[in-house]
Design brief:
The protein is built from 2 helices and 2 strands. The protein has 83 residues and is mostly helical. Strands 1-2 form a two-stranded antiparallel ribbon. A hairpin with a 2-residue loop joins strand 1 and strand 2 (36-37). The longest helix is centred in the first third of the chain and has 18 residues, at 6-23. The N and C termini lie far apart (31 Å). The model has no long low-confidence stretch (mean pLDDT 80).
Amino acid sequence: MYQLGAATRAAAQKISDLRDAAAGGEMDQGVVLNGMANLVPTDANGLAFGRTAQQILQIVYLDLSAPPTPGGFFPNGLNGTIR
């Protein structure tokens, strides 16, 4: 994604910003961090970011309300129980 150019990096950053908004703060990193490619977004300890089921649904539904309504990547929603 980084090599695809500035427009693609800008689009990827918007997705990262949405993930931050869903998480309620800075829990995500874009493909550029401190002016360099950020291939593996992790915290200071090298751990991947954790999210609740609601945060994940907010991201994939592109809906920051609580609870989120279907849309975004899953316009018909998901089926089954999320635990």
